[in-house]
């Protein structure tokens, strides 16, 4: 029935129709959750059976590396699809990576866990597990965050204690520093390098890929506007991108630079932040955050140019390609080793 036609129905009948429809949709969702819980628990137990069988030792040695191959063939003959060698290997890894079934979150699907068990590093795996629960990522979003090295990028500016906390709890947003990364990965824009592009084109591509950009920014960001007009002494200015962070309850202003950031860029952002604090904030809003997102960054210039300014003004870099995760892992390992000494 056309939804528009239900407006003319008897009110009591329409109420009945709405209640049945609501319960049906709710029931579908519960069924999906129940099936997912059953699948996750079942696959964990299958993984447990496989590992326990392997650990019996020499009496099982004749199966060797062919165990999963034999199981795949025989289980497929009995039950049909779902028992490929690859899937059985994921079940085995699932038990090894998550040995306590009672601690498993059923907010994650089996497909999520398949992505997580691919990670050998326990700290990374723990972070993506916790962060996925916090941000409710889809499977493609989880894959993207892994590929972009989110954990390592967040850990770059942290000491050993903070890195361990990040791994165990995920990124808990409590202050402006928690929503800013040292560098942002914008590979989803698909801008080839070398390539000459303007700031306007960069901004347009970000808006065309807003959902992916919000994923890169992190939890809590809502889009407010682009080229946001700011008028001071009858002189118009425009902030490239304006967001509002729901958790921190403050505006986040982003200016895009395709080259190295200059000292006057920093001064201009500081002016924007002052304007928003005085003219745009409502009661209960906290002071704004400013992020200058640039292709290049002179650390010394930024240090001097921001001297005495608000600690909520940040200069971060962006890159148009996925990072070298192995190199990032080496940097984080060195940080952990240095702090431990």
From TrEMBL:
Return the Gene3D superfamilies for the record: 3.40.1350.10
Question: For the YhcG N-terminal domain, which residue ranges apply?
Answer: 21-153
For this protein, the record's Pfam families field holds:
DUF1016_N (PF17761), YhcG_C (PF06250)
Q: Which residues form the YhcG PDDEXK nuclease domain?
A: 178-329
The protein here is known as DUF1016 domain-containing protein
